[in-house]
Amino acid sequence: MSLTRKNSKRPVLKLPLTDWEKGLELLSVLGVLFVFLLVYQSWGVLPDRIPTHFGFTGQPNAWGNKESLFFLPLIALAMYLLLTIVSIFPHTFNYPGKITEENAAAQYIMARYLIAVLKVETIWLFAYIQWVTIEVALEKATGLSNLFLPIVMVVMVGTIIVYVYKAREKR
After folding, report:
1. What letter does residue 43 receive in the DSSP assignment?
2. How far apart are CA 54 and CA 21, in angstroms?
């Protein structure tokens, strides 16, 4: 599979967001707000020491002060902003086929869908990790599930595989 180069001449199109993209944006925004809300809601009851890292088995393997709880919400917000900005420029992406005047709109929209879906998955992944971190700190849970990492990998890689298949289909 060869990817087209960024410096190729591609049409620059101003395509409005589809209803599907608007829904994904809403889910992303709600995820970012939820991650911050988790910190706000639990701050007063959290102990001074909370888990700051989980190993491959899902068990906490590093601990720190509760101020580290702000790390994931800030990363989620940064990811949201970065991916939102990146999605404005689909003509600069690498694609699994040649972009032409005829297929540009469909390819650009599919690429924006990919970014939007990965954004939702990533932000809600952070929300889940934040929630488990709080639950472990409050001794209501022992860690992430053993299946956490395999499930995350299957979902994210699966999303990319589906995109590549559909993008190649619409060449």
Report:
1. G
2. 32
